[in-house]
């Protein structure tokens, strides 16, 4: 099946500032793609380019194999978009606003709007101007999901949501994916991305610095391992294992870092008597921070 999102050397400069540099990326049908990066990394720039809200300096973006500039009207029907700075008419009531947006999307059953509002604990009768930031964000989520678009493009979708509503949002993403819809979501919250994404791209200073499956990113993270043996420690054997570094031995306990697969370690331990074993399970947050440990000079290099 052809790609839903296809970016080729996509580049955007804002005057002398670099927003995005040579981004090559393909997202397939039904995939949940997490787009991670710190403030100012280029996430919103990428999303605005995808939707033709801004034009690339060079390179190109295709959605469903089509040019978002030339086929804007037909493409926008297939896309649910939640902007990072989602704004609507503040004088309207929530239900009124959503019905208006539903008509623009070619019609959505009222039951679908009500179901989403109930799940997100959003009052359809409330005036938008009276809503808190989190509740306004819920309006943004309902309008993005309600017409079951083929592609959901969500810019920081959980911003301002409380943890319970965040969980409901993750359920909506899982359901969309199970329904064959593609989700491209930006975030700086690794745990939420880890919970739903198939693949993750990490962007820093306008450049994609990592692109992998969640499972693979986790596997490439360094584990902290501590093994207590019921016999003398085979120091040389441990030190010789691929990926082992920082080995220290204290009595019958060995401590070290292990990069990559633990397979060789497990084989070695299987030949010995192990009294206790502890290995920290790396989460994406640790991986993420490894990629983020950029010094401030790195930020400066965003200038052309
Ligand atoms: N309209 C603009 N004019 C000038 N520079 C801009 C403009 N929009 C974005 N930039 C710059 O482009 C870079 C990327 O910004 P972008 O908004 O895409 O980041 P982001 O990853 O979405 O950040 P955040 O998490 O803060 O929303 C930043 O250096 C930003 O200052």
Automatic annotation (TrEMBL):
<keyword id="KW-0813">Transport</keyword>
<protein>
    <submittedName>
        <fullName>ABC-2 type transport system ATP-binding protein</fullName>
    </submittedName>
</protein>
<dbReference type="GO" id="GO:0005886">
    <property type="term" value="C:plasma membrane"/>
</dbReference>
<dbReference type="GO" id="GO:0046677">
    <property type="term" value="P:response to antibiotic"/>
</dbReference>
<dbReference type="InterPro" id="IPR003439">
    <property type="entry name" value="ABC_transporter-like_ATP-bd"/>
</dbReference>
<dbReference type="GO" id="GO:0005524">
    <property type="term" value="F:ATP binding"/>
</dbReference>
<keyword id="KW-0067">ATP-binding</keyword>
<keyword id="KW-0046">Antibiotic resistance</keyword>
<dbReference type="InterPro" id="IPR003593">
    <property type="entry name" value="AAA+_ATPase"/>
</dbReference>
<dbReference type="Pfam" id="PF00005">
    <property type="entry name" value="ABC_tran"/>
</dbReference>
<dbReference type="InterPro" id="IPR027417">
    <property type="entry name" value="P-loop_NTPase"/>
</dbReference>
<dbReference type="InterPro" id="IPR017871">
    <property type="entry name" value="ABC_transporter-like_CS"/>
</dbReference>
<dbReference type="GO" id="GO:0016887">
    <property type="term" value="F:ATP hydrolysis activity"/>
</dbReference>
<keyword id="KW-0547">Nucleotide-binding</keyword>
<comment type="similarity">
    <text>Belongs to the ABC transporter superfamily.</text>
</comment>
<feature type="domain" description="ABC transporter">
    <location>
        <begin position="5"/>
        <end position="230"/>
    </location>
</feature>
<dbReference type="InterPro" id="IPR050763">
    <property type="entry name" value="ABC_transporter_ATP-binding"/>
</dbReference>
